[in-house]
């Protein structure tokens, strides 16, 4: 006598379908979470690389500032060797060869509004007889999408101690001892950059 093959009941089919749907949902959830983790990791790595590149450029350029005049004060006739406030800075340093002719050129760093954010730019100008010539091209963007950019300066006080940080450099005929750069983006603050200028005080010899 032949035995009749047993089939699945409707309840068993529904249960198996529910379990399969739950397993698929769990699998898709795990894939989405893994994708989000990878995306966050890539975004963090990209931000860290951006911070590294911009910081290295600023350290090299500011730290390489030279005591070369790029203009003269209209009132006193004194040579201008370093000018800076909280959001802009001008000084002479070697221009990287990959950005142009190379050689000493006026560097103009400035934070500009770009929509709801700020952009850090650098411009270069050739020098002739101690005067900066008009720029031959627009400034180059260093970093955009920033929340804030702030520069500060300090020098040795009269008693030989390190002075406080100032938001504006008031001795344009000389170079400061240190420059501090603070940058914030949408993810938070970058590590503070404090750059020492080896030629600090150059230009003050004739005033002592």
Description:
By secondary structure, the chain is of the alpha+beta class. Helix content is 26%, strand content 32%. The chain has one helix and twelve strands; from the N terminus they run αββββββββββββ. The protein has one helix spanning 10-63; strands at residues 71-72, 79-80, 82-84, 88-94, 104-114, 117-125, 127-128, 131-132, 140-154, 178-185, 188-189, 193-196. The strands form three sheets. Strands 3, 4, 5, 6, 9, 10, 11 and 12 form an eight-stranded antiparallel sheet that branches. Strands 1-2 form a two-stranded antiparallel ribbon. A hairpin with a 2-residue loop joins β5 (104-114) and β6. The longest helix has 54 residues, at 10-63. It is elongated, with a radius of gyration of 30 Å. The protein starts with 9 loop residues before the first helix and ends in a 12-residue tail after the last strand. The mean pLDDT is 86.
């Amino acid at each position: 006598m032949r035995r009749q093959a047993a089939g699945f009941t409707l309840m068993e089919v529904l249960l198996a379908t529910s379990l399969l749907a739950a397993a698929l949902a769990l699998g898709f959830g795990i894939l989405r979470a893994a994708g989000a983790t990878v995306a966050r990791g890539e975004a963090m790595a990209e931000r860290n690389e951006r911070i590294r590149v911009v910081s290295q450029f600023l350290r090299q350029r500011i730290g390489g500032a030279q005591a070369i005049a790029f203009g003269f004060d209209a009132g006193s006739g004194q040579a201008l060797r370093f000018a800076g406030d909280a959001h802009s800075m001008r000084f002479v340093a070697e221009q990287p060869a990959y950005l142009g002719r190379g050689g000493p050129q006026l560097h103009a760093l400035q934070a500009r509004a770009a929509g709801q954010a700020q952009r850090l730019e650098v411009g270069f100008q050739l020098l002739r007889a101690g005067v900066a010539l008009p720029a031959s091209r627009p400034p180059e963007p260093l970093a955009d999408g920033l929340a804030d950019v702030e520069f500060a300066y300090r020098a040795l006080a009269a008693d030989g101690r390190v002075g406080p940080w100032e938001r504006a450099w008031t001795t344009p005929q000389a170079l400061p001892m240190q420059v501090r750069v603070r940058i914030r983006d949408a993810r938070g603050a970058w590590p503070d950059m404090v750059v020492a200028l080896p030629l600090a005080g150059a230009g003050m010899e004739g005033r002592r």
